[in-house]
Amino acid sequence: MAASQNPFRVYHRAVRRFLVPLLLAAVVVGACSGGGDNSDDLPAGNGTDEDYLRAVCIGIDRVSDALVSATTAEAIGQVIEEFAATMRSIDPPPDLVEYNRQFVAYLEAALRDPTSVVTTAPPQPPDDARRRLARLEPSIPECREPTFFSRGLE
Question: Whole-angstrom Cα distance, residue 9 to residue 132?
Fold first, then answer.
């Protein structure tokens, strides 16, 4: 029996002929689709003002409480890191996506010196969005001191 007539070899040639291109196609499609949850993905910008304000106000309250009651910079830093993680994971409203990126960068920079949140002003969103959020702050129960976005507005 010739080698080309061996049923085992004929089967392997047929499998190789179809399986290898199929596997290569699957690898290419998988690589091009990007995959699932990537922390570098930009937020979709589908969030609501209310949910965004709620997250900001809760985070600000926790940082303020830590500044008053924490006994070490590391303890304050832990609270700031939790706040940054929350803001990284939130889906902001469409016109606040870039602002949220800047705000997270501000929080991350504060991790080097956690008390700098007292002396370094946070970034502000564009004026239209800032005014909109300032009007909503008093209606959000989690915003105990609704002045974060309204401070300095005339």
Answer: 72
Would the CA dihedral through 116, 38, 142, 150 be positive or negative? positive
**Total Cβ atoms within 10 A of residue 92:** 26
Token digits for 109?
């920079």
> What's the pTM?
0.71
Asked if 77 and 114 count as a contact pair (C-beta separation under 8 A), the reply is yes
Report yes or no: 53 and 143 within 8 Å, Cβ to Cβ. yes
Dump pLDDT digits (tens) for 60-82: 999 999 999 999 999 999 999 99
Residue with tokens 């960068």: 105
Per domain, the residue ranges of the chain are: 3-28, 49-139
24, pLDDT greater than 80: no
Number of H helices, E strands in the chain: 6, 0
